Amino acid sequence: MLGNIDIKYGYCTQFIVKLHHPDKFDEKFMKEPLSQMGDSLVVVTDDDLLKVHVHTNQPGVALTLSQKYGDIQTIKVENMRLQHSTIMGNHQEPTKVAKKVSKFGIIAVASGQGVHEAFKELGVDLIIDGGQTMNPSTEDFVKAVNSLDAENVIILPNNKNIIMSAEQTIDLLAERSIRVLHTKSIAQGYTSLMAFDPTLELDDNFEEMTTIVSKMRSGEITFAVRDTEIGGVQIKKDDFIGITENKIKVSTPSQLETAKQLLDDMIDENREIITIFYGKDSNQDDLEAIVVYAKQLNPDIDVDLIEGEQDIYAYIFAVE
User: pTM of this prediction?
Assistant: First the structure.
């Protein structure tokens, strides 16, 4: 049951700013004033972008402050008091008859029927459909947690843009035992489940899952929608781009060549397994060539193929 929560700061405020002078900007310029007017503060920079999350009663002041350093690109402000009241008003306790409460419940965000099935096979109890182009809301996570009869809940956001929304669930459902693993990709989320052990306690599981994610490599192959340059990589519209650890590493007109160059960066003699989720835009001949190339890079590596049926990414690589 959702209890009454004293929400000190009523507005969940998130925004992204394109910095005028990223080389001169220091995160403390925002952290120091915002820490005086709110909590749950997250301030991170990513190249020339500033990303801010804060719970405050003065969202306008926070936004105005940010404009000293750049141009606001996106804004999201949610009234948490209203949101909580709505959730409480809609929440009805279902009739339960001798239903056993499980020790753990795992929630993952994913897209693609094959990806869904792969996650469920590794013990995920509930999947929220979403990803790069469809980010779940905090209310989606709240509903998901409330649907699970579990003592402890682990959430796998599987996208860096979804982590903040997942984290807010902890504040709104303070009476529940919830942990959010900061998985930034499908590959990270899938690999983290390899370390999950239902016989362990929550903290031990969280530590093991975090550790395995820190040691693996994740990668994706997708396509470019415009001409640009990112991190020194020249990108042309309709090129195929290779991404690892959320950074663009390669861009070429060939899907296969892009995959090969990306794997050059991901596979060495110490790697043991590569899991390949192939999506709707994949090509059977290319897939076979990718498997052969992975074996050339490391003859001892095991290759696991999963028909993910995901959009956007032709291939998702998880290398352990």
Answer: 0.71
